[in-house]
Amino acid sequence: MPLSKKTVSGYVAATGTVLNIEDAYRIPSDREYGFNVEFDKSTGYRSKRHAHGAHAGHKGQILGVIQLINRKRTTRNVGDA
């Protein structure tokens, strides 16, 4: 997969920067990266808060990016059947 700084995960992978985004739909226009709304449109999900960090190998090379996204609201409690 080609690396592009135009996406949030691509930017983190290319720069090693940790990003904590309060609202994916309100990323300032002066940022090099942006949010692609296609996943939300296709699933009906509403991405909001994102945390992104690069995962580096023992030699410092970036191996991947971990992305945490706001949880989906549910009426069930954890452990309920």
Strand and helix map with partners:
Blueprint lengths: L7 H8 L3 E3 L16 H6 L6 E7 L5 E8 L12
Antiparallel strand pairs: 1-2, 2-3
How would you portray this structure in words?
The chain has 81 residues and is of the alpha+beta class. It is built from two helices and three strands; from the N terminus they run αβαββ. Strands 1-2-3 form a three-stranded antiparallel sheet, with helices on one face. The longest helix has 8 residues, at 8-15. The chain is globular, with a radius of gyration of 15 Å.
Strand order of the largest sheet: 1-2-3
Please tally the helical runs, counting DSSP H or I stretches of 4 or more residues: 2
Low-confidence stretches: none
Helix-residue proportion: 10-25%
Strand percent estimate: 15-25%
Mean pLDDT: 88
> H/E series, N to C?
HEHEE
Overall SS class:
alpha+beta
- Sum up the overall morphology in one term: globular
Taking the sheet with the most strands, its summary is: 3 strands, antiparallel
Number of strands: 3
Distance between the termini: 40 Å
What would you report as the Rg, rounded to the nearest angstrom?
15 Å
Q: Which short descriptors sum up this protein?
A:
81 residues; 3 strands; globular; alpha+beta; single chain; 17% helix; 3-stranded antiparallel sheet
Summarize the model shown.
By secondary structure, the protein is α+β, with helices and mostly antiparallel strands. 17% of the residues lie in helices and 22% in strands.
